[in-house]
Amino acid sequence: MNCKNCHLSIVNTVNHINFKNKYVKLFRKLFPKRPIEINYCTNCYEIMANELELEYLSQLEHLNSYNNELEILKKQTKQAYSLNDHTESKTTHRYIVLDESSAEYTEIKKRFDETLSFKIIRIEKNNNPSLEQKFNERSKQLTCQNIKYLFHGSNDKAYDNILETGFDLEYSSPHGLLGKGIYFAEDASYSHGYGRMTKTNIGKINHLLYCKVNLGKTCKGCSGLIETPTGYDGVHSEGRTYAVFDN
Asked: pLDDT per residue over 181-207, tens digit each?
C-alpha cells in the first residue's frame, strides 16, 4: 500500500505506529467530527503530527488565556455594593452575584440554555425595594394574576435606568411586532439581539435582564398598538413574546 500523500510505500515499523497514533490522537482532539484519513507513510505521519501538535498547543494557550481573562472579569467588575435603606442600623446589598451552585442560578441558566449556547459569566440579582413596591401596586390593578419570569434586552442608554426606576415606555417603538410596548420573551434568544454589549479583552459581552413580570390577562397583539386593548392587561404574539403598555 502506498502513502496517500507522497505515494511511497507504507512500512509498518514501530516509529510508523507511534507517529500514526500521535497523529490520530491530535486530529481527534482538534477535529472530533471530521472523517480522518490514515493511509500515510512514517515520514508524512511525523510531519502532520508535528504540525497538529503546534496547532493544538496554540489553541490550548489561547483557551487558557481566555479562561484567565474570564476569571478576572468575574471578580473585577461585580456590581455588588451596599445601599443604605434609610435606617440607622441596616444596610441592604443592592446587587448580589448569585452563587453558581444556588437553585436560583441553576434555574435561570437552564432557561438561558434552552435557546442560547453562550457562556454565562455571572448572574446578578437586583434587590430594589422601590421596584418591588411598584410591582405589587401594579399587580393589584390587573384583571388577574399571571406572573412569569421572562427575558428582556435593553440598549445601553436604558439599561441602568431600568435597574433604578423600572421600564420606561419612552424608549419603546410603535413599529414593533406588538406595538409601542415594553417587550418580554420566554426565549433568551429573542432578547439577545436587543441586549447591552460591552467590549472586553475576550470579545463582546452581552447583558440581558431576567424579569419577574405580571402580565395579567393577555390577548393577541399586533403592530401599531399604543395601549392595551380594552379588558386586557397585556398582549402576546403568535410565539412566546409579550408586551405591556403600563408599568
From this structure: 999 999 999 999 888 777 776 677 888
**pTM exceeds 0.70 for this model:** no
> Which grid coordinates are listed for 103?
437553585
Helix/strand/coil for 166? coil
Q: How many CB atoms lie within 10 A of CB 107?
A: 12
* 93-244: in CATH 3.90.228.10: yes
Domain range annotation of the chain: 14-74, 93-244
123: which 3 cell numbers?
A: 448572574
Average pLDDT for residues 84-112, to the nearest whole number? 74
Amino acid at 106: T
The upper half-sphere exposure of residue 136, i.e. CA atoms within 13 Å in the direction of its Cβ, equals: 6
Closest by CA to 184, choosing from 210, 205, 159, 163, is 210
